[in-house]
Description:
Elements: H1 2-28, H2 35-46, E1 50-52, E2 56-59, E3 63-74, E4 81-93, E5 101-104, E6 107-110, E7 113-118, E8 153-156, E9 159-170, E10 176-186, E11 189-190, E12 195-207, E13 209-223, E14 228-242, E15 245-260, E16 265-276, E17 281-292, E18 298-299, E19 302-310, E20 313-321, E21 324-327, E22 330-344, E23 347-360, E24 365-378, E25 386-398, E26 403-412, E27 415-424, E28 430-441, H3 478-481, E29 485-496, E30 499-511, E31 514-524, E32 527-536, E33 541-552, H4 553-561, E34 566-579, H5 583-588, E35 591-604, H6 608-617, E36 625-628, E37 634-647, E38 650-659, E39 663-672, E40 677-686, E41 705-713, E42 718-721, H7 723-742, H8 759-770
Parallel strand pairs: 5-8, 6-9, 7-9, 28-29
Antiparallel strand pairs: 1-3, 2-3, 3-4, 4-6, 4-7, 8-11, 9-10, 10-12, 12-13, 13-14, 14-15, 15-16, 16-17, 17-18, 17-19, 19-20, 20-22, 21-22, 22-23, 23-24, 24-25, 25-26, 26-27, 27-28, 29-30, 30-31, 31-32, 32-33, 33-34, 34-35, 35-37, 36-42, 37-38, 38-39, 39-40, 40-41, 41-42
Helix pairs in contact: 7-8
Amino acid sequence: MKALKWILGIAGGLLVLVIVVIAIVAATFDPNQYKPQIVDLVKQKTGRTLAMDGKIGLSFFPRIGAEVEKLALSGPRGQGTFAKVEEARVAVALLPLLSKQVIVDKVVLTGLAVDLVRYKDGRTNFDDLIGAEAKPDEKAGQKPAPPAGAPLAIDVGGIALKNAAIGWRDEGDGTDVRLSAVDLETGRIASGVPGKLKLAAKVDGKQPQVRLQVDLSTGYVLDFAGGAVALSALELKAAGDAPGLTGLDARAKGEKLDLDPAARRFDLSGIELAAKSKDGLDAKVSIPKLRLAPDRSESQAISGALKLARPGQAVDAKLALSALEAKGKQIQFARFDVDLDAKTGELAVQGKLATPVTLNLEASQISLPGIAGDLTVSGPDIPHKTLRAALKGGARADWAKQNASAELAAKLDESNLQAKLAVAHWSKAAINFDVVADRLNVDRYLPHKPAAKAPAGVGASAPAGGGGAAAEKPFDLTPLKALDATGSVKIGALQVANINADNVNVGLKAAGGRLEVSPISASLYQGTLAGTAAVNANNNAFAVKQQLAGISVGPLLRDVANKDILEGRGNVALDLTTTGQTPTALKKALNGTASLALKDGAFKGVDVAGLLRQARAILGSKSAVEQQAKGGQKTDFTELTASFVIKNGVARNEDLQAKSPLVRLAGAGDINIGEGTMDYTAKASLVATSTGQGGKDTANVSGITAPVRVTGPFDNLKYTVDIAALATDAAKDALARELERRLGGGQAGKAGAPGERPSGSSTRDVLRGLLGR
């Protein structure tokens, strides 16, 4: 008994001594004196600036604790504010520290605000805090040595966040989302120890545009060593507005959700997902049981349904996944079915898709070996009112290596298509593809555009820039900036934009916001096409280089532009660049060169010989001879050559030459592609002959040159003969003939002595030269 009394007495004395020591330390020690040293230490270790505007309070027994007010930590290199907190409280149990156990009492953070940023180059404003950046004292290629001894065992009594705010901004893809009014309460956080979590937060986003109230409650068990997470009694609610959805009410419930990456185990049970919105969404997914693991896998049938009912739009989709069968290391689902019934406006789509599913958890692979489906599209603008397509093939994915591939075959009306697709690096997908089709009519599947009706007295289309024209919608090339793709397309017979081509071969490569189309080759309109094209989404720039050889231009112009203004066959060369965000802007910014060389053709809509005869008949009049383009009239030529220099949408030509047995043409002028107008002058003359186009009626104007001016919009060209110039030329011609007659040149053309020039011809040439002819 005395010994026990002595022990209790000594223990009591020691306790009193400890209390006295703590009291003395608490009374004499002021931690606020060490603020400058703490700030300097943070600066030395992180390069960041720590501001401590509040007081530091300490507690010593039975736990070592600290309470800090008004902290702020700068961003990298002391720039901006990374995080701040109004008040932080934390305490650590004293005795467990002696056995390398960190038992932390509840951590409370009030008014925490953190702004997380990912820059365009992929770095973040917290890389230095999580060890993503190499520390100055670390040698290149050398990892820091792990601390000696056993690792610390972490045990936290709980974490509480009160009125916290966390922002995330990605300068690469424009994501800008912020959590506010965050209230988080957890139970004990220790490996293998059950706990409960409650979370409430507001989610506001500019990109994507979202405004939601989120509430979560769940039980949890964490395994720090293996990285496993097990959730139980999960309840999640989200209400508000999300992209494309107004008045969203989404809910998720689950009895169990167990994820263990190290053991390759995925276990779900009693999962129910449901979402409704005020604008017609109704979706449900049910997963009664699904366990995927190397030792044992089992499931029950999984089902889902999606309905969307909006004005002019309705979607009804169902999916079903059969119960699994485990066969060795592989897991098989006998059937995965998707049933779709959708309608948008007058367009209706119905389809079914089915495939077996094979999983190999050990190899981290999934395979869809027998994809088969049918799709039916119907509507008033669909060819024959109905379009049917059949699909078959297979696909596979390896989520460990982050790659996927597919081989598909489709029957689309009269077209047979085969496609191979491979995707690597899912985080930044690199796509490779090859598509082969025997024939494809793209126009068949595009919406029908009714021909615009022009007002009375106006051509089929008004000049660009007319007051009644609807504003053009800028096209967006942004998706091209993230595209990394290489592939080829081969089509036996193609119709697109009313252009018909055979043996089409196109190679494509997209990277860094630039799309290169090379080569481009095809057989079309009795000739061939070869060239390249490029699109740069970074500055909306376009470039085209094309060589068309042996092309029949008449059918080409009629199919492409619905213009019947030129016939002939020959070569066309284009080397063009432009920039802009609308078709009109592209036309007005067009620069480059073009040339053509045609044979055995005709200008449609104008009879030059007839114009000259009409002009001759009214010589002496001050009236101009004008003629609108008329169907059925034409001017034949045996050769036509021209080259163009294009600047800011205006094509300038200086060297037009056209020849025929009857007519000679030489021209120069401007073709304003951006405005859709022409101002061109062609000097036309008739050859002295009574045969061919024009017949005997042209004899009285043969040899005369007259300027023919072509003006107006492309759809309503006007041809005008310069009477004054024609009269001057006719007078010179008549004077030459009279002088020739009086000087004895009337027998021109008779043969003289061998090697001697005909006198009449020589006389006429001299006279015409003197008269400027």
